[in-house]
What we know:
The protein is of the alpha+beta class and 148 residues long. The chain has a single domain (2-143), classed as Gcn5-related N-acetyltransferase (GNAT) (Aminopeptidase). It has four helices and seven strands. The chain has a seven-stranded mixed β-sheet, sandwiched between helices. The protein binds coenzyme A. The site of coenzyme A has 21 residues, from α1, β4, α3, β5 and α4. Residues 1-145 form the N-acetyltransferase domain. Its EC number is 2.3.1.266. It catalyses: N-terminal L-alanyl-[ribosomal protein bS18] + acetyl-CoA = N-terminal N(alpha)-acetyl-L-alanyl-[ribosomal protein bS18] + CoA + H(+). Acetylates the N-terminal alanine of ribosomal protein bS18.
Amino acid sequence: MTVIDLDPSWLAACLVLDERALNGFWSAQQWRSELEDPRRLCLGLVRDEKGLSGVACGWLVVDELHITVLAVDPDERQRGHGRRLLTALLQRARQDGAAHATLEVRSDNIAALSLYHRVGFKTAGRREKYYRDGSDALIQWRRLSTEE
Length: 148
Ligand SMILES: CC(C)(COP(=O)(O)OP(=O)(O)OC[C@H]1O[C@@H](n2cnc3c(N)ncnc32)[C@H](O)[C@@H]1OP(=O)(O)O)[C@@H](O)C(=O)NCCC(=O)NCCS
C-alpha cells in the first residue's frame, strides 16, 4: 500500500471511506473543497486503483497544522495504517513550514487518543460539550521537530 496526495479524482473513494469509517462526516461538497484546495493537505493510503484504506487531511494556518480528518477503514484497523498516515501528514506539514500540529478528538475516543499519544501529542485542553451529543473534545497538540 502507498501513501499518496489525493486529488479530486478520489472524491468517490473518499465518500465511500467516510461513510464506512466516519458515518458520513463530510458531504460531497466538503470533500470536493478539501480535495481541490491547494492549501489543504490530504493524503490517502491506497489499496488499489479505486480503493482507499485510510485518509489524513489538514490545513496550515500560519505555522500550525490543523488536522481535520484521520480515518482508517473499519476492516483494516490496528495494522499500523493510522500511525503511518498521521506520520506522513506531519512530515509533509513540517516540510511546508508547520512548527506544530493540533486537532480536537472526542474525550471517549480511546483508539484515536492512544494513537495521538503514541505519536507524541499531548492533551492541551478540553472543550466542554463541543459535540452535538454533548460530549467533550480534548485538544491535542504537539511540536514538530526539524528532523521530521
Ligand atoms: C483512530 C484510527 C484512525 C486508528 O487507526 P488504526 O489504523 O487502527 O491505528 P494503528 O493501527 O496505526 O494504531 C496506532 C496506535 O493506536 C492505538 N490504537 C489503535 N486502535 C486502538 C484501539 N482500538 N484501542 C486502543 N488503542 C488503539 C495503539 O496505541 C496503536 O499503537 P501500537 O500499534 O503501538 O499498539 C481508527 O481507529 C479510526 O479510523 N477510527 C474512526 C475515526 C476516528 O475516530 N478518527 C479520529 C478522529 S479525531
